[in-house]
Structure to design on (596 residues):
């Protein structure tokens, strides 16, 4: 049975961009956006792909949604090859790249939906009713007949999503659906996304926001510099980075000797350093209960401005650790 | 297992693209004005120049100016709409939809040809007012039929141009340089036979050149255009138009493949 195949099955996928700049003196640059991705995503849930800017999230989303060809490797969606079977796949998938672009600004939201309903062959007898339903589902009733150029960013994003699900796709790709939205609009979008899963749609979502992934996605993968550096449930990922406690020490710079001394403390699995304006912050992952904030203070007597705090390791930390390992 | 998805229809997609073009035009119809200025001026100047040469030169002037407006509208409109798709970021969702992009382009080209016709009509009306009466046409029915056919030849060029716009964001730049050359090369402004001999082979690559020459044979007694005469013109127009449409059908598939390889759909 076809529905037994995973929603997404990616093997050894790479993508290289060769771009040339300049007109007379062409200068070639080569970017390895994806460097060997293997990933399987089951049907019927929201899968989250996290990663910093330039990690390759959009590139991967576009390849999966047949808008970009891979350089090597294969990607199967719903059991069909995204390169060779794009014609089979396109009517069954939805894509929301989002942002300010991607809509016809001079016509109304409703007309945008009508146009795409026609391109997807939504049955004519159903078209108007389905559009009206979608418009109220995304809360745009009051603005449906206004020109899109008058829409706010959040309204455009809702329209994007309505467009993406107009033809009732089996799988929906959402590239950063809440980027640039205020907290209230972002919450509405997340609610909408969750309601789609209830309809049986598989969702592949990219985001920068850890809490968003935590809230929506049972399973996530972290992409960094074109590689998947972790893929698991949110709970398991928390365990992965060793240490559920985090100590933060802030001062105007530390020397190497001090950092080495901290590293030697019992249970410290990792130290990250980060600049905060004039200050430097050292973040220590601590595996056990052995090392306390006092121990850290004791090792740094020459810093009157020093502050040390303890907190629980968050998914954000997990993410930063993983991305840091990749040299970001 | 999910139900089979809806089946797209090429015809419906073409109609949808036509409809969207009309809506976009109605939202912002004033662009018709700047595109009319050059043809109207050209019509007035040639009218002044040729009025002494007899009644048929009036036809000649109108044909030139009308074609200029239609040609500009078709070429500009067709390529430009795809260029706009790039700019708006709508090219990606459109390509991602199941309908081949060619059928979307076809709908827009139809609209552009039609709006070009509106432009041609405006030129005609201006001349009518200035000249104080309609021009002399020897075979009005033949004229009308041939005129419609020329619109098809224009459309075929429009489709090929749109392919360039899908292919690269530099298409607009190339077209801007080429536009004036097209007006002259296809005989909108002067009969092609008046041009230096080396431009002839180039202008013969464009279907409207043949069609326009045929139209002049038909409507201007004593007209001396291409040596192969009216029927030769007509044959050439049909052949080149067919070639253009065939070429467009062929390249669109490859162009789409190419942009998916390059990943430049969102560049503008
Ligand atoms: N069309 C293109 N031509 C050349 N390089 C590209 C192109 N598209 C993406 N890249 C490069 O590929 C890499 C991955 O980009 P991608 O847009 O996939 O990252 P992302 O994870 O979506 O980032 P963001 O969070 O900023 O959206 C980047 O280095 C980017 O510069
Ligand atoms: Mg991105």
């Amino acid at each position: 049975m076809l529905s037994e195949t995973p929603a997404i099955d990616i093997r050894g996928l790479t993508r290289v961009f060769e771009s040339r700049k300049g007109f007379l003196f062409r200068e070639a640059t080569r970017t390895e956006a994806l460097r060997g991705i293997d990933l399987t995503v089951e049907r019927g849930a929201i899968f989250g792909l996290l990663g910093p800017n330039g990690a390759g999230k959009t590139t991967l989303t576009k390849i999966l949604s047949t808008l970009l060809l891979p350089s090597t490797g294969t990607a199967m969606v719903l059991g069909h090859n995204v390169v060779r079977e794009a014609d089979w796949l396109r009517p069954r998938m939805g894509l929301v790249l989002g942002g300010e672009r991607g809509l016809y600004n001079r016509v109304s939201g409703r007309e945008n939906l009508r146009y795409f309903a026609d391109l997807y062959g939504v049955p004519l007898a159903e078209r108007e009713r389905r559009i009206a339903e979608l418009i109220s589902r995304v809360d745009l009733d009051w603005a449906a007949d206004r020109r899109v150029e008058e829409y706010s960013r959040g309204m455009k994003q809702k329209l994007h999503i309505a467009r993406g699900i107009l033809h009732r796709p089996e799988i929906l790709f959402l590239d950063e659906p809440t980027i640039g939205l205020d907290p209230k609009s972002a919450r509405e979008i997340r609610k909408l996304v969750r309601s789609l899963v209830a309809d049986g749609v598989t969702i592949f979502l990219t985001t920068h926001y850890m809490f968003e992934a935590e809230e929506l996605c049972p399973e996530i993968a972290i992409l960094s510099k074109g590689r998947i550096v972790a893929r698991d449930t949110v709970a398991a990922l928390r365990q992965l980075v060793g240490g559920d406690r985090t100590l933060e020490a802030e001062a105007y710079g530390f020397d190497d000797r001090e950092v080495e001394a901290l590293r030697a403390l019992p249970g410290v699995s990792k130290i990250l350093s980060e600049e905060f304006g004039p200050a430097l912050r050292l973040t220590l992952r601590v595996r056990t209960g052995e090392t306390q904030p006092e121990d850290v203070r004791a090792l740094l007597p020459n810093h009157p401005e020093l502050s040390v705090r303890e907190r629980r390791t968050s998914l954000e930390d997990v993410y930063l650790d993983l991305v840091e390992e990749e040299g970001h | 297992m999910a139900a089979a998805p809806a089946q797209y229809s090429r015809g419906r997609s073409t109609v949808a693209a036509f409809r969207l073009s009309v809506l976009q035009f109605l939202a912002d119809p004033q662009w018709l004005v700047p595109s009319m200025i050059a043809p109207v001026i050209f019509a007035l100047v040639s009218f002044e120049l040729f009025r002494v040469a007899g009644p048929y030169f009036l036809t000649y002037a109108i044909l030139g100016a009308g074609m200029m407006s239609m040609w500009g509208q078709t070429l500009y409109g067709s390529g430009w709409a795809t260029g706009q798709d790039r700019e708006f970021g709508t090219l990606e969702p459109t390509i991602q939809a199941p309908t081949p992009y060619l059928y979307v382009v076809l709908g827009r080209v139809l609209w552009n040809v039609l709006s070009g016709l509106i432009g041609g009509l405006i030129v005609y009306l201006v001349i009518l007012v200035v000249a104080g009466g309609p021009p002399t046409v020897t075979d009005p029915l033949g004229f009308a039929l041939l005129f419609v056919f020329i619109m098809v030849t224009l459309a075929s060029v429009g489709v090929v141009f749109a392919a360039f716009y899908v292919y690269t964001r530099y298409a607009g730049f190339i077209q801007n340089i080429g536009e004036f050359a097209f007006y002259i090369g296809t005989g909108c402004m002067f009969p092609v036979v008046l041009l230096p001999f080396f431009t002839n082979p180039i202008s013969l690559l464009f279907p409207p050149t043949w069609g326009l020459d045929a139209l002049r044979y038909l409507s201007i007694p004593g007209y001396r255009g291409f040596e192969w005469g009216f029927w030769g013109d007509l044959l050439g127009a049909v052949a080149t138009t067919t070639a253009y449409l065939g070429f467009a059908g062929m390249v669109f598939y490859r162009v789409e493949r190419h942009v998916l390889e390059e990943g430049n759909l969102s560049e503008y």
Residues 12-260 of chain B form one domain. Residues A 57-58, 175 surround magnesium ion (ligand 2) (CB under 6 Å).
